[in-house]
UniProtKB/TrEMBL annotation, chain B:
Organism: Aquibaculum arenosum
Subcellular location: Cell membrane
Family: Belongs to the binding-protein-dependent transport system permease family.
Protein name in the entry: ABC transporter permease
PANTHER family registered for this protein in UniProt: PERMEASE COMPONENT OF TUNGSTATE ABC TRANSPORTER
Length: 250, 233, 286
């Protein structure tokens, strides 16, 4: 049963989605970095957050994930399952931080932080590695793995946590094409298991391959939230249009 | 007697393995290693907490611990002496002029070193780890054992620095231990005594022995650290 | 359900931290306990004495004899006389064994000590560089020699540490009507041995007790320049710290030590101690 953990989790557990941001602003020492962001994330989508450097993409993800608190406005999980104490959304960073222990122990540590019993941790961690064909890495020290292997391990770690939403912040920015492809495959696996994806990327090809919906940010403001087909056909905002043509540099 | 005899004296000390000397060496190691153990048990978590918690007076606490790294051993010894003296607040314990008093004094002496160096190491590591650990659901308190564990190779250095200070100092143990022959005489107080007696060769011989012991312990620590690092990454 | 596991994990984290702290405390108290048990198991007394007696090696010679006879271990803290008396005053020793008669009598009068017993004497010697810049070598009038040293401003190394030797030196300056000070008068603020080490390097004149001088090995150019004057007489006394002042004082064992020191046997042991063929202390208990 545990080999398909996602399905098991989804059955009978109320969802935490939708996620709503209402008039969210974020400022550091009075300098506004995000202004008046409003958006809603619904279940099952693959949402790509796009925009030039400094638009506030990573900040938006961190606010959603709860790593940062908005200076103004509210971030709310509206679903009936939102009140359980366990965090049911996970995040994968551009550069994953691996602890100085084995790949397997990195996953069991994350599970321990989620309050999962000792006996169950190892089983669940191994299942996650196996799901992505990474069981050969289990006993290797995580710190000496290659960048691509570490990112795949980070994905497996996120998988083991059985999230309902997965945030990814430029997960392939530091990777070669092969590793990028592997990560995209893993993202699709999450999607197939019903996990909602919210991801930033600078790679337009990747955005086209993965997106159901696009959020476009510019200068800390949300300019549009548009279905992917429509966005890549013709963005609604001028800035996004310029961005797509490579004319918008910041 | 000239210094040219010091190496001979050191060599003789090692070869003859005089039981009184063995006793002194064992006591020295016992006192300093116990002090290091206690200072680590207290100092590693305190240093880590200081690194990652934000609270009022944190800056002051950091400055004080940093400054206390330079605490003169005699001052630490004097404070512990006054506390443990029969006329002091803890006089009833009868600990003055015992090895326990020396352990307490050395713990006081090296705690700031362990705390300060640990804080520095953990602060750097926390910068790297904070987002990831928070994302995985770690509370700040729960992060402390994780960080200490991951910094363990760097922390060996701070613990060794503490041991170095403990094993090298004479001022504190002399005051609170009393340099009693066969009971509280350590390597360093014996060196001080032999210097006072004008037996410089023997004093230097003991000094060479102390350096060799310190070297041996550091080699062991470094070796095991490197070995562990190679096997765990 | 989920909530419960979470709480348990949180608790176990707290438990880990608490366990760590508890282990630390347990370790500390175990250590403390082990040494207090040691206190209870074996009989011992703490004697505050002077660096001169310790460094001369006298205790290494006589204490085993006493310990064998009585089973009482004697732990000697070697300090300057002033500091040794202070250690007794604070109750940190059971017996003081020092050499500064006036200070000892004051100690007893102040109620800190029970009674003063005279045990032995040795004498002080004036040592100085063999070049003898003050020209006092061979004199048997120490007061005149001190006056000459001051007059010629020849370098003099003083203990300056409120020890018995320091007190004796100050008394001699007094007799010579000299207020010591100035560039030629150097206070080392340390024990007899370190002061002799310093004097050998300067070089300088210094007042030393004969015991330390005989056992001292780093003499350099120093040699005895004045000796044999009655005013260089150095009397040692032993006093039990007053148990009425400090109730934990081991009066019985401490008195046993004093009784042994002034007994025929103890006196003989003191008199038989020789270093480099020279007798260091002369027993004179009444």
């Amino acid at each position: 049963m545990r080999s398909e953990p996602r399905v098991e989790l989804m059955h009978g557990v109320p969802s935490i989605l939708p996620l709503r941001l209402e008039a969210v602003s974020f400022a550091v020492r009075g300098k506004p970095l995000l202004t008046d962001i409003g958006l809603e994330v619904t279940s099952g989508q693959r949402i790509m957050v796009l925009g030039p450097n400094g638009a506030g993409k990573s900040l938006t993800l961190r606010l959603c994930h709860g790593l940062l608190q908005p200076t103004k406005g509210r971030v709310t999980w509206l679903g009936a399952g939102a009140n359980t104490p366990r965090r049911r959304h996970a995040m994968v960073f551009q550069r994953p931080v691996m602890l100085r222990r084995s790949a397997l122990a990195n996953i069991t540590h994350a599970l321990a932080l989620q309050g999962i019993g000792r006996a169950q941790r190892k089983e669940q961690a191994l299942a996650a590695l196996r799901h992505f064909g990474l069981e050969a890495l289990a006993d290797r020290p995580a710190r000496v793995l290659s960048g691509g292997e570490q990112q795949r391990l980070a994905m497996a770690r996120a998988w083991a946590l059985r999230p309902e939403v997965l945030f990814l912040d430029e997960p392939c920015a530091a990777l070669d094409p092969g590793a990028t492809h592997a990560i995209e495959e893993m993202i699709q696996a999450f999607h197939r298991a019903g996990v909602t994806i919210v991801m930033t990327t600078h790679n337009m090809g990747q955005a086209r391959r993965l997106a159901d919906e696009v959020i476009f940010l510019h200068h800390g403001r949300l300019l549009e939230q548009t279905p992917a087909a429509e966005f890549f056909e013709q963005p609604r905002s001028e800035a996004a249009d310029a961005f797509m043509k490579g004319e918008l540099l910041w | 007697m000239g210094q040219e005899n010091a190496f001979l004296a050191a060599w003789r000390l090692i070869v003859e393995l005089d039981p009184a000397l063995v006793e002194i060496v064992i006591l020295s190691l016992r006192v300093s290693l116990t002090a290091v153990l206690l200072a680590s048990l207290l100092g590693l978590p305190i240093g880590a907490a200081l690194a990652i918690y934000r609270f009022r007076g944190r800056g002051a606490a950091i400055v004080i611990f940093n400054a206390m790294m330079g605490l003169p051993p005699v001052v630490a010894g004097l404070v512990v002496y006054l506390l443990l003296s029969r006329s002091g607040p803890f006089g009833g314990l009868g600990l003055l002029f015992t090895p326990t008093a020396m352990i307490i004094a050395q713990t006081v002496l090296i705690l700031p070193i362990v705390v300060s160096l640990t804080r520095q190491v953990i602060e750097d590591l926390w910068q790297e780890y904070e987002e990831q650990l928070r994302s995985l659901g770690s509370s700040t308190a729960r992060a402390i054992p994780t960080l200490l564990r991951d910094a363990r190779f760097s922390l060996i250095t701070s613990v060794l620095a503490g041991f170095g200070r403990a094993s090298a100092e004479v001022g504190a143990v002399l005051i609170v231990g009393g340099n009693i022959a066969g009971y509280t005489r350590t390597m360093t107080t014996a060196i001080a005594l032999e210097t006072a007696r004008g037996d410089l060769a023997l004093a230097l011989g003991l000094g060479i022995l102390l350096i060799l012991l310190t070297l041996l312990l550091n080699t062991l620590a470094y070796g095991t650290g490197r070995f562990a690092q190679r096997t765990t990454g | 359900m989920v909530k419960h596991t979470n709480a348990r994990e949180f608790n176990s984290t707290r438990r880990n931290i608490l366990a760590g702290a508890a282990m630390g405390l347990a370790g500390l108290s175990a250590l403390a306990l082990s040494s207090t048990q040691a206190l209870a198991q074996e009989e011992f007394i703490t004697v505050a004495s002077t660096t001169s007696t310790e460094q001369s090696g006298l205790f290494d010679h006589i204490l085993p004899l006493f310990e064998e006879e009585t089973g009482i271990e004697v732990r000697v803290i070697a300090q300057g006389t002033g500091q040794a008396l202070d250690t007794g005053r604070r109750g940190d020793a059971d017996v003081v064994f020092v050499h500064a008669k006036a200070a000892e009598e004051e100690f007893v009068e102040g109620g800190y000590g029970v009674e003063r017993f005279e045990v032995m004497y040795n004498d002080f010697v004036v040592v100085g560089p063999n070049s003898d810049p003050a020209g006092v070598a061979g004199s048997d009038d120490v007061v005149e020699a001190f006056a000459t040293i001051a007059e010629t401003e020849s370098t003099f190394a003083s203990r300056g540490d409120d020890s018995g030797t320091h007190k004796a030196e100050l008394a001699l300056w007094g007799m010579a009507d000299v207020e010591p000070g100035g560039n030629w008068y150097r206070e080392t603020g340390s024990g007899m041995g370190p002061t002799l080490n310093t004097a050998a390097q300067m070089p300088a004149y210094a007042l030393a007790d004969r015991g330390t001088w005989i056992s001292f090995q780093n003499r350099g150019d120093l040699e005895i320049v004045v000796e044999g004057d009655d005013r260089l007489f150095n009397q040692y006394g032993v006093i039990l710290v007053n148990p009425e002042m400090h109730e934990h004082v081991k009066a019985e064992e401490g008195q046993a030590f004093i009784d042994w020191l002034v007994s025929e046997e103890g006196q003989e042991a003191i008199g038989s101690y020789e270093l480099n063929g020279e007798q260091l202390f002369y027993p004179n208990a009444s």
